[in-house]
Amino acid sequence: MMRTMIAMGLVLGVVGAAQQAEAGTFITPALSTGTGDNVNCRLLSLRAVTNVKIEIRDSASAPAASALLNLAAGTTDSVSDFSPPTVSYCVVEGRGLSKPKARVTHCVRDASSTPIECVTAP
Known about the structure:
Blueprint: H1 2-22, E1 23-27, E2 31-32, E3 38-45, E4 49-58, E5 63-71, E6 75-81, E7 87-95, E8 102-109, E9 115-121
Antiparallel strand pairs: 1-7, 2-7, 3-6, 3-8, 4-5, 4-7, 8-9
């Protein structure tokens, strides 16, 4: 009985580690909104991904805007916040995201949605 419980614990631990390895998380550096009118967080993925959570967070890590995205390979999608916090950053989480295959860009934009300042992760 004890061996069975240990074996099950090891199997579950390996499964959990494999699932975490499949999940990718990208966090951009924070930007000050300054004179910007809105902020945007854009994901580009070279592989198809589903159920990717993309968030714009404030300096207290509270979500200011978010979306759940499904992207075909080689496409991009984004979320914007038109009442942005003073400081914000992007967090993107999802299975199948990997550094060589995806990029996240966080931009502060003017009223015409022209970028003023952008940062990219990874």
